[in-house]
Amino acid sequence: MERSALVIGAGPAGLMAAEVLAGEGFAVTVADAMPSPARKFLMAGKSGLNLTKDESLEACLAAYPDPEVRPMVQAFGPVEVMHWAEELDQPLFTGSSGRVFPRAMKASPLLRAWLARLDTLGVRLQRRWRWMGLPGEALFETPDGQVRLQPTVTVLALGGASWKRLGSDGAWTERFPDDAAPFQPANMGLCLGWSDKMAEHVGVPVKPLALQAGDVRDTGEVVITQSGLEGGGVYAVSRAVREGAALTLDLLPDLSEGAIRQRLARKRGKASLSTHLRKTLNLPAVKRSLLYEFGRPLPDDLAPLLKALPVRHDGFPDIDGAISTAGGLRFDALTPGLMLKDQPGWFACGEMLDWEAPTGGYLITACLATGRWAARHAAAWTQRNV
């Protein structure tokens, strides 16, 4: 009897699930609501596709605050992701921060090679197929009318709730009212109502800089935008801030509070405070403006403030503008193999699961890892039950 597999969603998690299932001998159909696959993946690659991070497995696993994801990344982590991409004839390079990119930088060459491999494996990609069924029901609205499939196994890879125009709208959660945690923004910037004096710094990166929120500290970079702060540094602490932690900026992470105080004690003469900060601490204009923006009225002893400048913010942008999302199918509704407990033979993977991770290659790595994990367990389940 032919074993068939249905994958709903053609992002990186769904395509990895399709690849694994096809390699296991399944006749695989991938159904996606959009006119073309992996649109968010392609968007992520426009500024350089950060596939993974070249670091120890221990360091990689520590980047995932949700422990349920770690075994999946342990089974398919940075080394495996790099090897997989190279098998698709995509040469890679590692940046100074350890982030791994295709030499082509864009996602499109890798995606073309990946789709060609899937085609060779016999995977059928059905575009503009929108899943309309309830859990356990493979019913689709298609350009040719309604289609109902009866696959041996099904893998859901429906994505999160950011970048709706690219296909991930989170609407599927309505079908899982008891099993899905509400979506929240992750890896997002902060909204700020800047004073007029900050206008000259829009687009300016702030570095070196350390951000602290609760127990999370990150030495990264932020960029001033018209409406707030963006960049890897703020993304790294965004979960802690979302959960209520206050955010502070260390404007001089390479100097101790004592060293700052010692330098500021030098004779100032008739120089303005701004000039004194620039000459004694080499504090650039953008950091001086941040100090005035958040620190006024300025205390006599500026050293503690320069090391922990409190950021008053107005929350986060709309969830649709977040890089990724937290929330989705809770792990307690799934078996360790990512099968829905209430729907035997139906599995889930990718951003539709309730996990999050910082940027830096961790998001794509875990999407690939969860897709592979779900597919391998779907194949094993079929051997035992069909």
CATH topology of the largest domain, anyone? FAD/NAD(P)-binding domain
- Name of the CATH homologous superfamily of the largest domain: FAD/NAD(P)-binding domain
Protein structure class: alpha+beta
Number of domains: 2
Q: What Rg, in angstroms, do the CA atoms define?
A: 24 Å
**Binned strand content:** 15-25%
The number of helical runs is: 12
Shape: elongated
Which regions are unreliable across 5 or more consecutive residues at pLDDT < 50?
Answer: none
Largest sheet: 6 strands, antiparallel
- What is the mean predicted local confidence, pLDDT? 95
Can you name the CATH architecture of the largest domain?
Answer: 3-Layer(bba) Sandwich
Helix content: 25-40%
Number of strands: 19
CATH class of the largest domain: Alpha Beta
> What separation lies between the terminal Cα atoms?
10 Å
**Order of strands across the main sheet:** 12-15-14-13-16-17
List the helices and strands and how they pair.
Blueprint: E1 4-8, H1 12-23, E2 27-31, H2 39-44, E3 52-53, H3 57-62, H4 70-75, H5 78-87, E4 92-94, E5 99-102, H6 108-120, E6 124-126, E7 130-131, E8 138-142, E9 145-149, E10 153-156, E11 180-186, E12 190-191, E13 205-213, E14 216-225, E15 228-230, H7 232-242, E16 247-250, H8 257-264, H9 273-281, H10 285-295, H11 303-307, E17 309-310, E18 324-329, E19 346-348, H12 362-385
